[in-house]
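Subject: Interface between my chains keeps coming out wrong

I've been trying for a while to get a sensible model of this assembly. When I model each chain on its own everything looks fine, but I need the whole thing in one frame so I can look at the contacts. Pasting all components below, labels as-is. Any help appreciated, I'm running out of ideas.
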Amino acid sequence: MRYERPQTIEDATALMAGAEANAFVLAGGTDLLVRMQSDAFEADLIVDIKAISGFDAITQTEDGFVIGAAVPSAALSEDAALVAAWPGVVEAANLIGSTQIQGRCTIVGNLCNASPAADSVPALVAADARAQIAGPAGTREVAIADVPTGPGKVSLSKGEIIEAVLLPKPEPRTADAYLRFIPRTEMDIAVVGAAVNLSLGDDGTISAARVALGAVAPKVLLVEEAAEALIGSNLDEAALEALAVACSNASNPIDDKRGTVEYRKEVAGVLARRAAQTAYARAGEN
Amino acid sequence: MSFDATFQNKRFNSVGTRPLRPDGIDKVTGRARYGADFNMPGQLVARVLRSPHAHARIKGIDTSKAEAVKGVKAIVTAADMPDLTDGDEALFAILDNCMAREKAMYDGHAVAAVAAIDESSAKAALKLIKVDYEVLPHVVDVDAAMMADAPVLNDTIFTQGVEPAPSKPSNVANRSEFGHGDVDAGFAKADIIVERSYKTEQAHQGYIEPHACVASCNADGTADLWVCTQGHFVYRQNCADLLGLEASKLRVTSSEIGGGFGGKTHVWAEPVALALSRKAGRPVKLIMSREEVFRASGPTSATSIDVKIGATKDGKITAAEATLRYTSGPYPDMWAELGAMTAFAPYDLENVKTVGFEVVVNRPKVAAYRAPSAPMAAFAAESAVDELAKEIGMDPVDFRIANVAKEGTRSSYGPVYGPIGIGPTLDAAKAHPHMSAPLGPNQGRGMACGFWFNFGGQTCTDLNISADGTVTIAVGTVDVGGSRASLSLIVAEELGIEYSDVKAVIADTSTLGYNDMTDGSRGTFSTSMATISAARNAIEVMRQRAAIMWDIPLEHIYWEDGHAKAAGSKHGNRAPLSVKDIAAEAGNTGGPIAGHSELVADGAGVSFATHICDIEVDSETGSSRVVRYTVIQDAGKAVHPAYVEGQYQGGAAQGIGWALNEEYIYGDDGRLQNPGFLDYRIPVCSDLPMIDTQILEIPNPNHPYGVRGVGETSIVPPLAAIANAVSNAVGLRMSHIPLSPPRILAALNAAKT
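Reply #2:
Try treating it as a single job with all components included. I did that and got this:
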């Protein structure tokens, strides 16, 4: 196995592009290093991207925030402007694993690991975040929801590396929230995750909304019907009920060791309701 | 010399204090040596190939390609471990479990093992071993395994304990029955009867340290084994029997232990490591991965239990009956029998009957887990008792007090009780502030009782006094919960010296006589008895030395407060001699001073506990949290109260995990779906409240200090206490452990429709 620690993104993408097989990008390593313990896992090349300039930075721009691919989750919660703008994204990133894990893990890693249960991904989708991708043919941007294509699979081409996550500048009176269900209090994987991002109009009604679910389908779901249930409402009981029904109906989970189909569908609605209430309260304070 | 173990009520100086444990600093600084921390020159790395099938005939194993891998030094299969068990079925089960012979009986069953110069060679070789399997139908569920059309695991198993003996083989290995009186007559007198069926899923002990050992078979016919175990003398015997070694030529050293809870009372990989070492001619280190630990070691039984209890309107139980079905893995054992014995042990019952069925299934061989079998039986019995109290309209504590066993009660499993602690634990529960504290919204309170037999057994101990007057105590019971601290306190107490002047060590099998393993809550009970005896023997030697030093008759010297004193006015002006004074002169008065003891510690004294817990349930997600928990248990005498409390808390914590989330989940293919701590959910710190404890001390009449074992009983009540609390919180009777969120939500939804 070869370990490389390039200083530039060009070198990093060239290494990945030139690898024959079993090449992996290493940032926090909280997924990769665990997988490397398994008998079935084989790695020929590890490209550590932590030394690349700017990859460890959160930058506020006119358009919003640029979060480098090597920024650990814990650093997100220490950026006051980011916390104020996107509290749901930050709380999602800080539910991953445990306090120790959050000191190393990154939201880009969470995205590229492509687990249907990834915590930060529904929050990023609800926030309408985009991924900035560097590759041998230059850079491109895609919606976060288009990065994972199924369990463990991503839409990146050979040699491509996600450089950063781009979060937009939120509209006035906008807030997000993320909730996930786990049987334990930490050190666990989401059985269901729900993220809600909403904006309030001048009269306090919801003018825009995005609702995303995790762990209820092969990949993260953006639930349009759920957003429609919220828009135009004051988050009254009828809107909440319509939201919950839309989320339950949109869920297409499997029975597995972490939960049953019926359980996940029902709890998707419950968590969406609760996340919407939190986002609504936060938006009202903005 | 025979030792009088009768309880003597005395005032203590050291016993009952809370000094730091002698092994503590090494453990928190990482210097303590666990199973994987021992190394030998030239040692090889071992890896085990395991069956991916729940049930399969092994038609052939081709190791030729694997043997050709560079660095591979030995490969063993069942052919390298011939059957030397000579008709001993229990020993054969151990052999077959260590290395599958004709059939793989469960997902994870060892079929071959490799020793190589490094991990990557061993891993490469594993992939090249070709096993020709004929996959057979399998069964993992206890009730399904008892059905007439279930695949039969072993066609030599004919149910024992039934008349007439069955003519067809089945998965039911044995039927046992306990009780007295006439339950039918008792139920006829009942005003109210509760009858319900319960299930519990299979749980693992969840010790943090995986099994690990280093084995070395030497050219001269001797062998060494360094291993993480609860009983190195038992491991020595098992390994010697299976490999055809003489016990005295196999020296077994126990390492520090990162948890065992019964799971390290059985050999798994150790005979395989020895077989590899014998074949390779080099030492072999074998460490099981976490996945291997889950798939192939440990677990307790999964159960299916029916309970029927009747009582009069004024709260007297007239009859109690239970049928208990326990899985034992692929080999017959006596787990249901233990469940049948313990189910109704807390109560004074006129009519009681329990029947246990041992059921073989395609799951790993069941191992002891902390009061093995009792938690599931208590879950079923105590759930029914709670429901009955509710039906009658009595407070659950009062109802239990009205039916509680006491001194002179004939127990449901046979013996008549001596002085026991169940009544006092219930009285303490009734008076405890927890019992009357207000509950918050969505919260429920539950309580339950638990019983465990406790065990004594064979113990051998050496006590040596150094020339400077400090003392070493060498014991053969592995310290799993702080016994070195407790035994040091006891030496300090007996000799009248400082705790810090005593060093307790766990001796290996070549330096001390046989000791039973640390199980049955026997560690401190039995070894303290031997230690007291050894210390008193040493005192006898010191009296003799004082007689030489003073040149006065032995009978004029008595021992008091850590000193030899001259009796009577004739010698009364002599300054008493301390242990240090006498030790300093030992070279001139007859040589080193030592005390030795070997005994069978009888009369362990049964143990009881009552637990109280408050649970909050989120009725929309089925999630539950333990918000308050109290353990009340009889310790006889708490030698080191902090470590007694630790045992109470540890048992409760494990019980909480088992009750709420821990379970073996099998796929339709019979493969274990969750062999890791991510999806086999033991509680993490933030899942648990501070677990409050109350130590009661009802002296055990059969121990000089009144000590009873405390290690196991604390895991018996939690399943029931939590199920009762959840049932009270949601207003529904929950009868399937674990009470995982999907199970609770499904029950709530079912009740709505």
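Reply #3:
Confirming on my end. The longest helix of chain A spans residues 261-285.
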